[in-house]
Amino acid sequence: MHQLQSNGKIDVFALASQDVSDRFIIPQKLYGREPELETLLAAFDHITNGTTELMLVAGYSGVGKSALVNEVHKPITAKRGNFITGKYDQYQRNIPYYAISQAFNDLCNQLLTESESVLKQWQEKILVAVGNNGQVLIDVIANLKLVIGEQPPVAQVGGQEAQNRFNLVFQNFIKAICQAEHPLVLFVDDLQWADSASLKLLKIILSDRSIQNLLIVAAYRDNEVDFIHPLAMTLDEIEKEGGYVSKIHLGNLTLKDVNALIAEALGCSTIFSQALTNLVCQKTQGNAFFITEFLKSLYTDMLLSFDYTKKQWCWDLEQIQAKDITDNVVELMTKKIVNLAEETQKNLQLAACIGNNFDLSTLAIISQQSAKQVLEHLLPALKEGLIIPVNNQYHLRILKDEKKASEAIWKFQHDRVQQAAYYLIPEAQKKATHLKIGRLVLSNTSAAEQEEKIFEIVNQLNIGAELIDTQSKQNELIKLNLLAGAKAKASAAYEAALGYFLMGSKLLAVDCWQTNYDLTLTLFESAAEVALMCSDFAQMNKCVEEVLQHAKTLLDKLKVYDIKITALTLESKLQEALATGLEVLQALGIHFPSTLSQLELSKVLQQTAVHLAGREVEDLINLPEMQSVQQLAAMQIISSIMSPAFRVGHKILPFLILEMVNLSLKHGNTALSTLGYVMYGLILCGTSEEIPLGYQFGQLALSLLELYDTQYIECHINFVFNVSIYHWQQPVQKTIKPLKEAYQIGRDRGDIQFSGLCAFYDSPLLSLSGRAIARSLMRQSIQAILLEKNLSCIYY
Question: Rounded to an integer, what distance in angstroms lies between the CA atom of residue 581 and that of residue 576?
Fold first, then answer.
């Protein structure tokens, strides 16, 4: 203005060269992390060439691990990579696949924003990858249903088969979405809090050499992970199995980096800010999160202010040094929260109980306020940066629309903020608070939504379970734990399932076997089953013995007897497994000859022939369905002890097979009749040389597969038929296609044992040229084994 008045013009000058902001803003950028950023981007470039890599980002809480990884989000998406993220929660460690579920739900949301044609392409790729097992993934990734639609129920299979199937389906899913044109970066934060199911799944993915174009970035607090921590052991196993693992260790910021941050925030030179930097580093040790919050506290306490006369930021080092400012970040965040209004504090405390991420709808329920009221109470925390919206569209404008407000999702700025908010709940009130939260969420959840939210509900109720004062209410919680355990089990998260079942058992009344028999029996059976899947044989035996001591009838004990036989077999206690099964069969009224001689076997074979007299084999498919619970139980026990009988070379094996056939002929068919018939066909072809009749029984077994729920043994039956029966009547080359089909069936259903055997026998059978050679070789080998080892060939 002076130039204009004096000279009639204004000389050219650089804009904003002397501007100094009077607003205190800490720059949203990284300092001193250039080498680490280059390493992350180099890892991404590496996986675009068709590899898979695990990049570990380790360091103390608040050191900037998440900020570092999120910095590469834009460069990766710019290169057409998909970047998805999930975070484990210190207060939600019992939820299976917690962060993985978040991340892939995030991916589904991204896919849903694509054009119709692009979305259709993704749908087709994923559907081809998951086949008929899409529901297995939807149980873990709920939003996947929006991408691929409703999926058919999956086949009911055994525990190990379910685990195998889940792993395979997830691997196929990963392969479908990790492509050269769209590499995938999966960022999992706070891996030190991951559940065991997640760690196992990550190990399987990283050990699969056929998966390409995948970068898993895992941030964790290495100071909380010692050598016996599950994460440390998992990482060791991944490296031993040849997984490609890299590591970035983030330390605290250097004095130089802190000074650069402060100088830029205050718009001054690094020389001018050096003294303040020295004090800040002394208090915070260079921890990035702590530095930011410490500077904010100085500004809030007016120890850092803007001097409008000097046009610069000013501070008094002596005042800062003298003031009692904590050097503990949680205490600092706690003080920040207590300065907020009481209602804001209460809502933050409740949100902390929910988790690091929380939705406004749930918070409204547990605070017993409207979503709009809750949001108004949270605004001060939002302005202070204690919480942030997950989706930017839900910002202050949300106040105008209560429906949108209820859908908003928020997260704590940092774990330490959540920890500070949770810390403010008096210790004596924590359990009661969780119990109240669980009850409110449960009462506001429809029956249709209950399964989807079951983990969140049960985890809250379990924390406050000891405060439940009536057995009827405890019984309700037992049922909810059963539901949570069943859901975890369906996702092959057996450790989590066991935790829920055992929690339920702790809530049982002293006289539970008298007052709540069915619920108690179901609970201990379920716990025994998943304990077996966890290889926790000690816990399994406790549950089995509990049932054996208190169950009213033999039939009520049969499930745990079957579990016990399986466990003994897995532990290679084969004689004990066989003895247990025979003892149960005897109690069911099934007896075997005391001397298992060839003469006795001939007598049993003759008895079977008598039962068959006047019947055509193909007509046996029309036998009525077996109804007797006792006979059904006998069939199950016999099938369970076939493996240990074979492995110890016990002479009782053919007697077991014939008993299955005779039970079917006398009492009707069941799913396991297929096993009895196909094994009987093997005997007829391999030892009795009644090849046409044996072939007919093999065909009968295959026909019955279509009438009963036999998906769990379909691969087994097809293997035995094609390897041990089919070639006696048909050219051996014709077994190749059925074996390949059986291999795929077993693979899809997690039956690794028999799908592997199908693949193994595919090659040798293919190499045989001609029926005569095949018959000669197979007859010689099978007859030798049958005569010397009593049908041991049935399991090869």
Answer: 9
Structure tokens belonging to residue 383: 């302005």
**Reduced to 3 states, what is the DSSP secondary structure of residue 169?**
helix
- Segment holding 770, helix H or strand E: none
Contacts by 450-453 with C-beta closer than 8 Å and gap 24+?
450/483, 451/483, 451/487, 452/142
Identify which of 663, 682, 675 has the alpha carbon closest to the alpha carbon of residue 714. 675
Pairing of strands 214-220, 184-189: parallel
How many Cβ atoms sit within 10 Å of the Cβ of residue 244? 15
DSSP output for 275-324: HHHHHHHHHHTT-HHHHHHHHHHHHHTTSEEEETTTTEEEE-HHHHHHS-
Query: In the beta sheet, which residues pair with residue 315?
Result: 304
**What is the C-alpha separation between 662 and 607, in angstroms, rounded?**
8
Per-residue pLDDT band for 404 (boundaries 50, 70, 90) equals low
DSSP per position, 662-708: HHHHHH-B-TTHHHHHHHHHHHHHHTS--HHHHHHHHHHHHHHHTTT
Please spell the DSSP secondary structure of 551-585, one letter per residue.
Answer: -SSHHHHHHHHHHHHHHHHHTT-HHHHHHHHHHHH
Q: From CA 287, how far away is CA 61, in angstroms rounded?
A: 8
Token duo for residue 333: 């965040």
Count of beta carbons in the 10 Å neighbourhood of residue 88: 25
Instruction: Map 405-434 to HEC letters.
Output: HHHCEEEECCHHHHHHHHHCCCHHHHHHHH
- 580 vs 530: CA distance, rounded Å: 20
| Rounded distance between C-alpha atoms, residue 43 and residue 79, angstroms | 13
Pairwise pLDDT comparison (22 vs 422), residue with the higher score = 422
Distance CA 477, CA 506 (A): 11
Percent of the chain at pLDDT above 70?
A: 91
B/e letters for 520-559, b = 16+ CB within 10 Å, e = fewer, are bbbbbbbbbbbbbbbebbebbbbbbebbeebbeeeebbbb
How many other C-beta atoms can be found within 10 angstroms of the C-beta atom of residue 259?
A: 23
pLDDT value for 730? 83
**pLDDT tier, 410 (very low <50, low <70, confident <90, very high otherwise):** confident
Q: What b/e readout covers 347-371, taking b as 16+ CB neighbours within 10 angstroms? A: bbbbbbbbbbbbbbebbbbbbebeb
With a CB cutoff of 8 Å and minimum separation 6, the contacts of 452 are 142
pLDDT surpasses 80 at 43:
yes
Please write the tens of the pLDDT for every residue from 535-564. Answer: 999 999 999 999 999 999 999 999 999 999
CA gap 690, 659 in Å, rounded: 19
**68: number of Cβ within 10 Å:** 22
Q: CA-to-CA distance for 255 and 31, rounded, in angstroms?
A: 11
Contact 26, 298 (CB under 8 A): no
Calpha distance 614→345 (Å, rounded): 84
Mapped to the 3 state alphabet, what secondary structure does 311-352 carry? Answer: CEEEECHHHHHHCCCCCCHHHHHHHHHHCCCHHHHHHHHHHH
CA distance 591 to 602: 16
- Across the range 586-595, mean pLDDT stands at 91
User: Bridge partners of 55?
Assistant: 217, 246
What element of type H or E holds 58? Answer: strand 52-58
Do the Cβ atoms of 696 and 715 come closer than 8 Å?
A: no
CA distance 165 to 747: 7
User: CB–CB of 704/675 below 8 Å?
Assistant: no
Q: What gap in Å lies between CA 265 and CA 138, rounded to an integer? A: 47
